[in-house]
Amino acid sequence: METKERILIIEDSEDVVTFLTESILHPNGYDTLVSRDGKDGLRRALGDRPDLILLDLNLPRMTGMEILKVLHKRGTHTPVILMTFYGSEEIAVEAFRLGVKNYIVKPFKPREVIDAVEDALAEGRLRQEKERLTEELMRTNKQLEHRVHELTLLYEITQSMAKLMDLETLLSRMVEASVFLSKADEGMLFLLDTETDELYLRAAKGVGEKYARGLRLRAEDSLIGKVVRSGEPLRVASAEDRLQLKVKTGYLVNSLLYVPLKLRNEIRGVLGVSNRVSDKAFSSADQHRLSILADHAVIALENARLYEAEQRRALQMAMTSHLSQRISSILDIEALLSEVVELLKQSFGFYYVQILLRHEPGQLVMREGTGETGQSIKDSLYQVAIDDQTVVGWAANHGETLCVNSVQQEPRFRTHELLPATMAELAVPLRSGNELIGVLDILSDQEGAFDFDDETILQMLGDQIAVAIQNASSYQRLRKQAELLNTLTHIPTTTASAEIVDEIVKKLMEGINGILPVEAGSLLLIDDAAKELEFKITLHGRREKLAQFRLELGQGIAGWVAEHGEPLLVDDVTEDPRYYPQIAQAIGFEARSILCVPLKTKQRVIGVIELINRLGRGADTRFTQDDLEILTALAAPIASALDSARLQKTGQGEITHAQRETLASMSQYLYKPLKAFATNTYALKVAIERGTVACTDDTLEQLLTSMERRIAQMASFAQLLSTLSSPDSSPQDWVSIEQTLERFRAKYDS
User: Fold this and answer.
1) What is the per-residue pLDDT for 668?
2) What is the pTM of this model?
3) Cβ proximity of 674 and 718 under 8 Å
4) How much is the pLDDT for 597?
5) Which of the residue ranges 150-159, 560-569, 576-585 would you say has the lowest mean pLDDT?
């Protein structure tokens, strides 16, 4: 039975405790512990090891901040949510520094509490999963190091054998080694003639050597033939066995030991030792050592081929290490994918390598491939369904590596016209925990190209590639968040004139193009009288061409968004019946994908922002959910600024109720992303300090420093908006507010 997560409530108010336990936490399946003073709460926090702590700041016997300092000093990782009647920037900064994950302001609503609790617990579970994966990765790396050591040792042995280019000398040395290791009187090495099914002597050592010269034995009717037929060693020392040996060799032996020379379950010969003078019987240890020597002997017979193979394997291991080090330092996702596929092809000599990433539920899209072939497949927007119908789809669907060493015998294999020489395929799922990121797909032009070592090495590489992709994605996401924060700081307050707002919004549209590079984009506003959308601001020119066009509400993608007040992300406009192609055709522009979000105030939709054809991903012009979230976040305060300018123009400077609501709305729009960015930034900073996230250079730390500065700037800006939205504010107050704002700008923009 699954154990419920326990939440410790440190709160001196009985009403708050009752509300939390009976109305919120217990109905949602959480167990609770309760302490009504600070010292008892600290004792239970350290002793009972709860999964989460809900902590009040003002407590008897010990304050909430004092508890946080003790927990921080002890290195406790239990997530903490503060409960307070008021918000303080200084307290919040100090609390986040001490490890607080969130805070909720009293009186709070059940949904606020549940959201905060679930977010904090989810982060804790994620941390535990990350620690588990880190331990697993370290364990896997140790196994890899051990395997590398074994392969290196094997490589050294085969190198030594390769120096003996004369086969007769090599065989004689192997027999000498067998006699030495087993302390036997004599030794011999037979090879199997598969055409005649006879064993013929190739080398011998000892007192009976002269009697054995030219000896040939039939495998089907000799004692040594038992080894060939069974494939197992033979160790004997009985009088009956000596009688059989006398018939074949012309002399008696007291004991003998035969081991097969076997390569991939194929018998190539027999290595044997015997005691004709000594009464010593051979032991199981002798058999074990001779078996190992026999393995080396058969390797020596395959010296040239195996040397080449081991040389390739050693190179693969070295390149695996190089590849791991290289990809861990790349934070640009496109550069990372390109580097991975090219290095894999060059290092392992594969025919073709590609990486497919999860694009949407049930689909993988090819993001990078080797050479011109890879670019052509990428430009075709090649996709694979996550199902059991293809090799790649099966690997993604089951989360397991699928090795196909003969594609002609595999019904799930799908031939690609640009890869006609494919003979074998290996698909490795890229996963982080239980989340599928994509698939590493490797093709060879040789049947039987992949062995167990290939699978093992590439699976481990796949795990590292998945982590590198996640790190690069997180880095890009943080960069976009930083750019988003920077863009938000330039949105004007309601004191700006309509002309200033128009100019700033135009610059903001250019800033949006910097965050989300596109081929074209427009800001359209609703003409209330005509019930039409008119083009106000465009990216990359076309303003004059578009000025003559208007869209009715509900017409086209932009008209639909304006009418319904909901964003739209259209991957392929030709597949969407809402697309209105006449304008694009009239100005000679080809739209392939569109992202459109509404400009909404508290009362209504005043327009839309429409972006067309995403750039930066080669031929793939589709937008992502991250793009949608970023544009939505930018649209809200832009709409408020535009609406505020309209209100100021019509209100002759009076602070109307609608303006106050707009100010409050802008403050809330800024506060929500600010809160999320602050939490994420602090969590990432702590992870870097603790070493749970790798940081190979100063780039990420510099980005975090910049984001912390922007967060402080946004907090100050939000406070200004909150002050203006107060019922006690007046137009006379705006002068001092503007002066304060200028001081903040001078401080943070420097």
Assistant:
1) 62
2) 0.40
3) yes
4) 95
5) 150-159
Q: How far is CA 698 from the centre of its chain?
A: 21
Residues 6+ apart with CB under 8 A from 726: 660
Q: Is the pLDDT of residue 33 over 90?
A: yes
**546 within 8 A of 522, measured Cβ to Cβ:** yes
Contact 364, 383 (CB under 8 A): yes
720: which residues sit within 8 A by CB, 6+ positions away? 493, 737, 740, 741, 744
Lowest mean pLDDT among 56-60, 404-408, 506-510, 675-679: 675-679
How many residues make up the chain in this entry?
Answer: 750
Query: For residue 320, which of 344, 299, 296, 300 has the smallest C-alpha distance?
Result: 344
* 243 vs 602: CA distance, rounded Å: 106
Report yes or no: 256 and 273 within 8 Å, Cβ to Cβ: yes
In DSSP notation, 336-348 reads: HHHHHHHHHHHHH
Average pLDDT, the chain: 78
CA distance 187 to 177: 9
CB 487 within 8 A of CB 459: no
Q: Going by DSSP bridges, is the β-strand pair 52-56/363-369 parallel, antiparallel, or unpaired? A: unpaired
By CB atoms closer than 10 A (0-12, 13-18, 19+), residue 316 is buried
Per DSSP, 329 falls in state T
Nearest alpha-carbon partner for 95 in 107, 108, 80: 80
Q: Which residues pair with 335 in a beta bridge?
A: none
SS3 537: strand
Largest CA distance in the chain: 125
Q: Which two tokens stand for residue 274?
A: 């015997």
With contact defined as beta carbons under 8 Å apart, do 393 and 438 qualify?
no
- The rounded radius of gyration (Å) of the Cα atoms in the chain is 37
The answer to whether 437 and 474 have CB atoms below 8 angstroms apart is no
Question: Between the CA of residue 659 and those of 291, 400, 438, 641, 649, what are the distances in Å?
Answer: 90, 58, 48, 10, 11
88 within 8 A of 69, measured Cβ to Cβ: no
CA angle, 373 then 377 then 382, to 5°: 160
Encoded tokens for 564: 């319904």
Strands (E), 571-684: 594-600, 605-614
The neighbour count for residue 296, using CB atoms within 10 Å, is 18
Tell me whether residue 238 is exposed, middle or buried, using C-beta atoms within 10 angstroms of its C-beta: 0 to 12, 13 to 18, 19 or more.
exposed
Apex CA 481: angle with CA 717 and CA 711, to 5°? 30
Q: Where are the alpha helices (DSSP H) in 489-592?
A: 498-515, 543-547, 556-564, 582-586
**Distance from C-alpha of 677 to C-alpha of 489, rounded to nearest angstrom:** 14
Nearest alpha carbon to residue 516 among 580, 422, 598, 612: 612
pLDDT tens readout for residues 714-735: 666 666 666 666 666 655 555 4
Question: In sequence order, which residues have a C-beta less than 8 Å from that of residue 376 and are 6 or more positions away?
Answer: 418
In this structure, are residues 213 and 292 in contact, taking their beta carbons and an 8 Å threshold? no
Beta carbons within 10 angstroms of residue 528's beta carbon:
9
DSSP state of 573: G
The amino acid occupying position 629 is E
Q: How far apart are CA 253 and CA 212, in angstroms?
A: 13
Residues 578 and 563: beta-carbon distance below 8 Å: no
Nearest Cα neighbor of 483 from 444, 450, 513 is 513
